[in-house]
Amino acid sequence: MKNKILICILLFTIQTIFALEFNSIIISTNWLEENIDEPELLIYHIGDNYAEEHIPNAHNLQLDRLCDYNRNGLDYEMPEVQDLQQYLSEMGVTQDSKIVLYYENEAYISDAARIYVTLDYAGLSDNVAVLNGGLAKWKNEEKKTTQIVPDNVSGDIEVVLNERIIVDSDWILKMMNESYFYLVDARPMSLYDGTEENTDFVRNGHILYALNIPFYEVQKDEPVYELKDDFDLEQLFINNNIEPGSIIVTYCNTGYWASVIYLAAKAVNYEVYLYDASFQEWNRDESLPVMQPVEYEK
Predict the structure, then answer these.
(1) So what CATH class is 166-291?
(2) CATH, range 16-162
(3) What is the pLDDT of residues 217-259, one digit of tens each?
């Protein structure tokens, strides 16, 4: 009996030691190539051309199944828990799955980041990583692609929401004057300063005290536009006066571009949150402070 117990303990210890672990939420193409056949690994292609080619073992993940597009008149809101649980189960996700998201090309990095935040919201952040450079970098390195669609594997997951990462306007107002708190507007400068008028909004401009870090600034300038390395990401935030240890809330128009800043900030260990309703909600409420442009360029 004692021998059986010792064997069970030994087997459990071995499984724990050799369990697949991500070394970062942003993983390299080499890491994926080395671990591509691990049984607990689920790889998801994000983009419209999955059928043309994809990384071996990858399934096609649809962003539109992971968003609520019209909740209280707002776009890109987090899905209801039952919808989230159903789709993840359909896609083969279990509590033990290790999930790699990769984007087809740089046009889909916001999709991948948005899905990452959604899976973080679903309580899976420790088991999710994004492939830096996506399919474009994978192909540049002449790694294998395929048109073979892997068999569907049904999953079974009970989603326990990590609701704290999604904040609302009341929470922002309470935190706004704290010295360690920073709002980051992920939109291009023209939308941040209001010189590009959004006719869907009652007010243009940005949330009072928000800094502007456009989402594309976390990417390298040369193809394949992979995310900057940790040092350069840290410097990007520091150069915007956001010191390590600060709390960051990201927003944009809808929470879509803001997800890229969320991913980058989390990769370099900031405590980060998403204002999912974003400026599409904030602009409507005249009681909420906005820095508006003096005049628009016509």
Answers:
(1) alpha beta
(2) 3.40.250.10
(3) 999 998 999 999 999 999 999 999 999 999 999 999 999 999 9
Per domain, the residue ranges of the chain are 16-162, 166-291
Say what percent of the chain tops pLDDT 70.
92
Axis crossing angle, helix 258-267 with helix 230-239, rounded to the nearest 10: 110
Count the helices and strands in the chain (H runs, E runs).
Answer: 10, 11
Same CATH topology for 16-162 and 166-291: the answer is: yes
Burial of 208 (0-12, 13-18, 19+ CB in 10 A): middle
Token readout for 38 is 């691990």
Question: Do the Cβ atoms of 153 and 92 come closer than 8 Å?
Answer: yes
- C-alpha to C-alpha distance for 38 and 36, rounded to whole angstroms: 6
CA 293, CA 298: separation in Å to the nearest integer?
A: 13
Q: Is the previous residue joined to 224 through a cis bond, with omega within 30 degrees of 0?
A: yes
Q: Are 186 and 255 in contact (CB under 8 A)?
A: no
CA distance 236 to 239: 5
